[in-house]
UniProtKB/TrEMBL annotation:
It comes from Capnocytophaga cynodegmi. One of its GO terms (cellular component) is TAT protein transport complex. Forms a complex with TatC. The keyword Transmembrane helix applies. Part of the twin-arginine translocation (Tat) system that transports large folded proteins containing a characteristic twin-arginine motif in their signal peptide across membranes. TatA could form the protein-conducting channel of the Tat system. One of its GO terms (biological process) is protein transport by the Tat complex. It is found in: Cell membrane. The lineage of its organism: Bacteria, Pseudomonadati, Bacteroidota, Flavobacteriia, Flavobacteriales. GO terms for molecular function: protein transmembrane transporter activity. Keywords: Cell membrane, Membrane, Protein transport, Translocation, Transmembrane, Transmembrane helix, Transport. The chain crosses the membrane at residues 6-29. HAMAP family: TatA_E. This is Sec-independent protein translocase protein TatA. Belongs to the TatA/E family.
Amino acid sequence: MTLLNISLFISKLGAPEIILIIVALLILFGGKKIPELMKGLGSGIKEFKNASKEENKNDSTAIEKKEE
């Protein structure tokens, strides 16, 4: 699934659908597990962004060295 497909899917969600998803998550994982899941998701996103920035930095350095 591409990022465009995901964003189109999310944009079509209304309030009832979002509430239903939240209720389903609470039933499946319980109130105590949700913060832990969100913390893990947040740290994963942070690591991904840091790795992406580092890769872009390495690419820029390689291009500069190649031009010299």
